[in-house]
Write a structure and sequence with these properties.
By secondary structure, this protein is mainly beta. The protein is 8% helix and 56% strand.
Length: 257
């Protein structure tokens, strides 16, 4: 069974088993995805300027996300199901976005805000959060091989907008054991944080390199490029990667309150 077929099957199972899990919410979509995530610490002042007034970044002081204030997430959306349970009009998509863990200073409300993204589908820009740009260059390739019990992989992602914004990743790795997890997180609208969507996830994460928790280092080769246009101030050469995380499968349900 291919990865795509397995993920589609997992998505169908999740849909079938939890049809009323969000009875007080409006189901918008579900998707089976593969993700590769880089956690960064970027210039705090530049990051603060991209948040709504009254909101601040939440920076972990320990654990695998220690010091991270920005997440760059490359996403292969392999099977997208609409809120009606049918395949979406665009059933697959590739994109990358930048997300910040946040809290509202006055209320203490916590969640995340997506501040920018590049997507291959022109119709997905600017998207519900109003921050996606169409990527005039959008390329992704992933390969996996197995030998003598070891599984290795290689991923190349390249997204660039005509206005100069760019995010790229090349990584080669040996896959380690994944840990099952999940969460329910509010994603606030950056232009109107009184509104939000609810992301519920069921996932497997393989932390491939992390200087805080020091798991076995499974990264063999790695490089990235990011910057230009609206995100230039975040990637000024002082940024630092603090975690390399692979999500071999990631089931996401998106709802509105």
């Amino acid at each position: 069974m291919t990865n795509r077929m397995a993920l589609a099957g997992a998505l169908f199972a999740a849909t079938s088993l939890t049809p009323h899990a969000a009875s007080a919410q409006t189901l918008l979509e579900q998707a089976a995805e593969h993700r590769f995530q880089l956690d960064f610490h970027v210039n705090d002042a530049a990051l603060a300027k991209m948040l709504p007034q009254g909101w601040e970044a939440v920076i972990a002081t320990q654990g695998p996300a220690k010091d991270a204030n920005l997440r760059m997430i490359f996403i292969d959306r392999m099977a997208i199901i609409g809120g009606d349970g049918k395949p979406a009009a665009r059933p697959t998509a590739r994109l990358v976005y930048l997300a910040i863990p946040v809290k509202q200073t006055a209320s203490g409300a916590v969640g995340q805000i997506i501040i920018h993204g590049l997507t291959e589908n022109m119709a997905d820009a600017p998207g519900a959060f109003g921050v996606y740009q169409h990527a005039s260059i959008a390329r992704m390739s992933r390969t996996v091989s197995a030998s003598a019990g070891a599984m290795t992989g290689s991923e190349d992602w390249e997204f660039a907008a005509a206005s100069g914004e760019r995010m790229e990743l090349h990584v080669e790795y040996e896959r380690g054991p994944a840990v099952k997890g999940g969460a329910e997180t509010k994603f606030f609208y950056p232009n109107d944080p009184s509104k939000f969507q609810i992301f519920k996830t069921d996932q497997a994460i393989d932390i491939m390199r992390n200087p805080t928790t020091t798991p076995p280092d499974h990264i063999r080769k790695f490089s990235y490029k990011a910057g230009g246009g609206k995100i230039a101030a975040l990637f000024d050469g002082t940024e630092k990667v603090v975690s390399w995380d692979s999500f071999p499968w990631y089931i996401r349900t998106v709802s509105a309150p």
